[in-house]
Design goal:
NAD(P)_dehydrat-like; about 325 residues; three-stranded mixed β-sheet; Rossmann fold; alpha/beta; seven-stranded parallel β-sheet; 12 strands; 10 helices
Length: about 325
């Protein structure tokens, strides 16, 4: 059995990657920022094959101890927030320099296999973003520069997209300088699914799932369709782990989307399948607010055909997410 390191192991996606890797027979060492977070995570994963490593800071920390005995790395740790005070400090530098820090440490430790989590934002090279009549694929790149993103003149969501593109581009540049590294980047669209990582309150729900929670929390407001295409968290975790032992994925960018998902569609699914929530839900519009708009497609062939991960349909993904959030509500309360 080989030991892998998963960064951001106590995050929404990171915890699912840990679970998938453990289920696949790996010994997994997950990075967290503190001993308190390590203890929380060990309660989720009591297996003797799960270990933790304290990495307080993505950029400054020394990874020497964390990488001892490790044969591969899945780097999923990166901020996923839109509202920040300092775009450079809170988004750009943690994403870019955090990624380079892991790659440098891996190269020094002689670790060659690295799988990196990127984002659909790294692909969006059309002004209409995900409402362009195009199929985005591995050759597409978001065009924004670091200087533009750090200017302080752009909304947080745009800076987030830029942070993912710039971090991924920096990783590929590093891999070109060190051709012994075997890099794969996984590029998911917005990710929904059950929460298995430790959280202390509903206000701590990950950014993507908070969109679905906003539909069922009684606010009765239909959020805007900023990312009208989706994938489920279990499938994305599986893609990361399968990529570790796929030669066909080495040196490749692996985009993944299961298909369109508008807020109108999601609301309809909840209304039909969970009628007991009707008094919490916003009214269903007569027509989809974005009816008539084209939703971009994503070339997911490498994930589906080569790695063999089809992904869950929208209805199953939404209902798994809703049921998980309702369980958290019972456990944590609404405050």
């Amino acid at each position: 059995m080989s030991r892998i390191l998963v960064t951001g192991a106590n995050g929404f996606l990171g915890a699912h990657i840990v679970k998938e890797a453990l289920d696949s027979g790996y010994i997994v060492r997950g990075t967290v920022r503190s001993s308190e977070k390590a203890e929380e995570l060990k309660k989720i994963f009591p297996s003797a094959k799960f270990e933790t490593a304290i990495v307080p800071d993505l950029i400054q920390s020394n990874y020497t101890e964390a990488l001892k005995g490790v044969t591969a790395i899945i780097h999923s740790a990166s901020p996923f927030v839109f509202e920040v005070n300092d775009h450079k400090k809170d988004l750009l530098d943690p994403a870019i320099e955090g990624t380079l820090s892991v790659l440098r440490a891996a190269q020094t430790a002689g670790i060659r296999r690295i799988v990196l989590t990127s984002s659909i934002g790294a692909l969006l090279n059309k002004p209409e973003l995900l409402f362009a009549d195009v199929t985005y694929g591995p050759d597409d790149w978001f065009s924004m520069t670091y200087e533009q993103a750090a200017s302080g003149q752009l909304p947080g969501v745009v800076v987030y997209l830029a942070s993912k593109k710039l971090a991924e581009a920096a990783a590929w540049d590093f891999a070109k300088e060190h051709p012994e590294l075997k890099l794969t980047t996984i590029i998911p669209t917005i990710i929904y699914g059950p929460v298995i990582h430790p959280i202390s309150s509903l206000q701590s729900i990950n950014t993507s799932n908070s969109v679905i929670y906003s539909l069922i929390n009684g606010a009765k407001i239909l959020p805007p369709d900023s990312v009208p295409t989706f994938c489920d968290v279990v499938s994305i975790a599986r893609i990361h782990v399968k990529a570790l032992h796929s030669d066909a994925a080495v040196g490749k960018r692996v985009p993944f989307s299961k298909g369109p998902a508008t807020m109108y569609q999601i609301l309809q699914i909840i209304m039909k399948a969970r009628p007991e929530l009707a008094n919490r839900l916003p009214p269903v519009p007569e027509v989809d607010p974005i009816a008539g708009k084209t939703i971009s497609r994503v070339n997911s062939m490498l994930a589906m055909d080569t790695l063999g991960v089809e992904g869950l349909e929208l209805e199953e993904t939404v209902l798994q997410t809703v049921d998980s959030l309702l369980e958290l509500e019972k456990k944590l309360g609404t405050n």
